[in-house]
Amino acid sequence: MVKSSDIKHANAALKSSPSAAGLTAVVVGGTNGIGRAFLDQLASLTTSPKIYIVGRTLPQLESIITTLQKLNPDGTYVPVEGGDLTLLSNVRKATQTITAQEQSKIDLLFMSPGYLTFAGRDESPEGLDRLTSIRFYARMRFILDLLPLLQNAPSPRVVAVLAGGIEGPIFPDDLELKDPKNYSFRNAAAVGSTYTTLFLEQLQQRHPKISFVHTFPGIVRTNVFNSENLGAVFKFFFNWLIMPTVGRFIALSPEEAGARHLFAATSSMYAAADDKSAANVVVGSNGVQHSGVYTLNEKMDAVHNDKVLQPYREQGVDARIWEHTTAEFERVLGGQ
Fold first, then answer.
1. Which residue in 23, 75, 84, 205 has its CB near the most CB atoms, within 10 A?
2. SS3 category, 28
3. Which residues form a coiled coil (predicted)?
4. In this predicted structure, what is the pLDDT of residue 219?
5. Which residues on adjacent β-strands are paired with residue 79?
6. Which helix (H) or strand (E) holds 160?
7. DSSP secondary structure string, 64-110?
8. Could you tell me the pTM of the whole model?
9. Strand (E) or helix (H) holding 30
């Protein structure tokens, strides 16, 4: 188990760590909640960081950058207007903005964008379910577009905040999740988490220099439950009855979640498979130590959901998810 004191000590030591000096990061979803808390701590606890911050609008990003400059005036903070990231075309515009400005490397790609809705399938103009797109397709497109810069870094890492270790059953004959009988909030959540872990494992086989981390943050006191996509009754029940009572005992503060994710983004415990110098590396998502893909619970302990995932690996569903996803990228974005 990763102790809270160990996380605090490791994060505090980043200021004096040569490997963290001059770190270049891309943070997607850093405008609120876990991502914002992570961004604040990444900026304040590292030396001369360069951080590309992907957010919906430039005014929103400029306000955040003003705060970051106060936290660490030696950092460089680059706003990247992303717009609606349920659209892969907007993801492509954001990554093109980054690659046009960054000619060197990306040490860290951190992704926590998303929104919550209990409505049915909401298909975007690109033919993708919006909820699944922002949880899975958009994040994997960020990785693929930024792969050359990640490969240039000495010890690159990708962190996806979603539901690592609590993957659920999917529909191998309906990978698009278009059949109305298959679509529900629970099934869409399972698709996002299961596809993410299995796609990252496929990526790792092709790019063993990169460490891939898929986390489950637990319950965090953020404004996600104020989303306009949720009904007024649910928001009242959750924000005024649940969170002030039970929630204050079981929910993490954004600051604590941000600190834990900074540890996940920087600790050698989650080293890439090619990094033979790392010690005390944990067991990966496939149950193999030092595999290069790690699914972490809210305490940043390594967990692996073999009950759900192993049958899919044995049946080749992981390869089919890779083929399905890349085919969807080709359909939406063409040969770009």
1. 23
2. strand
3. none
4. 86
5. 53
6. strand 157-161
7. HHHHHHHH-TT-EEEEEE---TTSHHHHHHHHHHHHHH--S--SEEE
8. 0.92
9. none
Answer for the pair 288, 281: CB distance below 8 angstroms, yes or no.
no
- Which of 318, 100, 332 has the alpha carbon at shortest distance from 198? 318
Which pair of structure tokens corresponds to residue 198? 């299995």
Secondary structure of residue 196 in the 3-state scheme = helix
CB-based contacts of 262: which residues, under 8 Å, 6+ apart?
A: 11, 14, 38, 41, 42, 45
The answer to whether the beta carbons of residues 77 and 101 sit under 8 Å apart is no
Using left for φ > 0, alpha for ψ between -120 and 50, and beta otherwise, residue 311 falls in alpha
Q: Are 107 and 24 in contact (CB under 8 A)?
A: yes
Element (H, E) at 179: none
The helix (run of H) or strand (run of E) holding residue 53 is strand 50-55
Quick one: tokens of 142?
A: 């960020």
Distance CA 104, CA 83 (A): 25
Separation of alpha carbons 207 and 210, rounded Å: 6
Task: Give the residue among 213, 219, 221 at the shortest CA–CA distance from 303.
Answer: 213
Indicate the SS3 state at residue 302.
strand
**85, two tokens:** 């990231």
Of 44, 49, 48, 51, nearest in space to 79 by CA: 51
Q: Which residue has the tokens 């890349």?
A: 326
Q: How much is the mean pLDDT over the chain?
A: 91
Kindly tell me the burial class for residue 104, based on how many C-beta atoms sit within 10 Å of its own C-beta (0-12, 13-18, 19 or more).
Answer: exposed
Q: Return d(Cα 155, Cα 73) in angstroms, integer.
A: 25
Which secondary-structure segment (H or E) carries 185?
helix 185-206
pLDDT digits (tens, 9 = 90+) for 240-275: 444 444 444 456 899 999 999 999 999 999 999 999
- Quote the strand ranges of 221-273, DSSP E: none
The pLDDT value given to residue 222:
66
Structure tokens at 42: 């990444």
The set of residues, in sequence order, having a beta carbon less than 8 Å from that of 297 and lying 6+ positions away, is 164, 165, 215, 216, 218, 303
State how far the Cα of 310 lies from the Cα of 222, in Å rounded to an integer.
33
Token digits of residue 36: 């914002």
Residue keyed to tokens 């360069």: 50
